[in-house]
Amino acid sequence: MAGDSWTRFRLGDLLSIKHGWPFKSEFFSETLTGRPIVVGVGNFRYTGGFRFSETTLKEYLDKYPIEYELSPGDVLLVMTCQTAGGEILGVPGKVPADGRLYLHNQRLGKVEIKNPKIVDRNYLYWLFLWSEFNRELVATASGTKILHTAPSRIESFSFKLPPIREQVAIARILDAIDDKIELNRRMNETLEAMAQALFKSWFVNFDPVRTKVETSGPHSSEQTSGLFPNAFEDTRLEPTPNGWAVAPIYDIATFINGAAYRDFEPNPNRIGLPIVKIAELKAGVTDQTGFSAVEMPEKYRIDTGDILFSWSGNPDTSIDTFVWTNGPAWLNQHIFKVVPPNRDSRAFILMMLRYFRPVFAEIARNKQTTGLGHVTVADLKRLMVARPPSAVLLSWNRLVEPLIERSFQIQLENNTLTSVRDTLLPKLISGELRVNAAEKIVEAVA
Predict the structure, then answer these.
(1) What distance lies between CA 316 and its chain's CA centroid?
(2) Are residues 283 and 135 part of one domain?
(3) Which of 18, 29, 166, 446 has its CA 20 to 30 A from that of 374?
(4) What is the domain extent for residue 351?
């Protein structure tokens, strides 16, 4: 347990939480011109930190009080959560030093430290990710479907604080793991961008066909060029390569909706398989994940490598396509398991669903109620895609599957790193594990 040198504090003894300003939505703009960006709850990761590169950024076009400008290193806490479980309540994010100016929006609490000689800002970031902190905020929150906390409730949290030198050492260990996770995430962004560029070139812009139509010169390769026609034809999708089929998205794979697990009470002892909801798609299996030993039809079982499409939730943060990497589980409703008709079409279907993400998000945004939107089977039957011949898919797979496989392996590595971080965090914050022992564990994993 915590050593004798650890002292019990209330957060309010060490810091204050400042409310954000109610920026008016009519002055938001998604066109990025270098103006200040309003930070929103949707810009946070469930596991902590910001995901500005993956979410919609909104600039502010009107005047505002200058005191709500943020500086690099400032820590913000989420004070509103749109799920009854409160998974993101109290989650922190550190303002990056990326050259942009960020603004402190309402429903976010800014951490203002009273005495930096007593408490380390980086240590506090990890304290805010401690499950005990989240549990207290959820227990004291107001609301039912949408939970709200307040500065006074955050400031009332009581815990034992180690000496400043030990705080810095604890934060350094956890920061190092997080930095590696972030580096891997950026590598995956690059791999994803490469795969998406190839998808758009071959199956949206039809560049190999256009090359044959517009020039008689050399193509990317004679072998690849020979797979493509030298003409377009008019279809329901406008001009598409001659001879290619046009089909609804819903017809190119099998979409299986998850089970309604609200009818089956998850057991608290983690017996059986985890139940995958939107939170698990974002953060994997955590302490907040429900488990169920109730046997369900096999179609609701998922496993590592399955493609999952989240079709309901916040349009900016929840409507997305994932590859599951956390082993056997049961799939909850509001998520499709997407089963390709054959192995050769898997990469095409995965990249196609990710390419359509902005379209899906806009559909969901137009159907929003209480902040949530959805994409229906009717939408998937309405959206059309060009279905390439099998020979084209085989050639494309040779280029893209190595990128997808590399990305998959990096994600598995991140799963291991995340597990180590999430195991060490509560033990270090509570004093159950000391710094020297934690350093040896990290060394062994590295």
Answers:
(1) 10
(2) no
(3) 29
(4) 185-410
Q: Are residues 218 and 351 in the same domain?
A: yes
Rounded to the nearest 5°, which phi and psi values hold at 366?
Answer: -75, -10
- Crossing angle of the two packed helices 390-430 and 121-128, in degrees rounded to 10: 110
Structurally, the chain folds into a number of domains equal to 2
In 3D, which of 157, 174, 212, 187 has the Cα closest to residue 17? 157
Phi-psi region of 107 (alpha: psi -120 to 50; beta: other; left: phi over 0): left
Q: Are 26 and 90 in contact (CB under 8 A)?
A: no
The tokens of 206 are what?
A: 């039809």
Q: Which CATH number does the domain housing residue 297 bear?
A: 3.90.220.20
For residue 94, give both structure tokens. Answer: 């550190």
Single pTM value for the model: 0.84
Say yes or no to pLDDT of 424 above 60: yes
> Cβ distance 366 to 374 under 8 Å?
no
> Would residue 444 count as lying in a domain?
no
d(CA 250, CA 439): 50
3-state secondary structure 332-392: ECCEEEEECCCHHHHHHHHHHHHHCHHHHHHHHHHCCECCEEECCHHHHHHCEEEECCHHH
Which of 234, 231, 183 lies closest to 208, judged by CA? 231
Q: Quote the pLDDT of residue 225.
A: 66
Collapsing DSSP to helix, strand or coil, 67 comes out as helix
d(CA 344, CA 346): 6
Q: Which two tokens stand for residue 142?
A: 């107001």
Q: Is 371 left (phi over 0), alpha (psi -120 to 50) or beta?
A: left
Q: What are phi and psi of 75, to 5 degrees?
A: -110, 130
The count of residues in the chain is: 446
Alpha-carbon gap, residue 445 to 440, rounded angstroms: 9
Cα separations in angstroms, 40 against 25, 45, 87, 89, 321: 11, 11, 16, 13, 22
Whole-angstrom distance, CA of residue 168 vs CA of residue 407? 33
Predicted confidence (pLDDT) per residue in 345-397, tens digit:
999 999 999 999 999 999 999 887 766 889 999 999 999 999 999 999 999 99
- Whether residue 178 is contained in a domain is answered as no
Residues 154 and 194 in one domain: no
Alpha-carbon dihedral angle through residues 39, 42, 45, 50, given to the nearest 10 degrees: -20
> Is 231:213 a contact under the CB 8 Å cutoff?
yes
**Residue 266 predicted with pLDDT over 70:** no
Distance of CA 70 to the CA centre of its chain: 23
- Helices 164-203 and 121-128: angle between axes, nearest 10 degrees: 70
Residue 223 binned pLDDT confidence (cut-offs 50, 70, 90): low
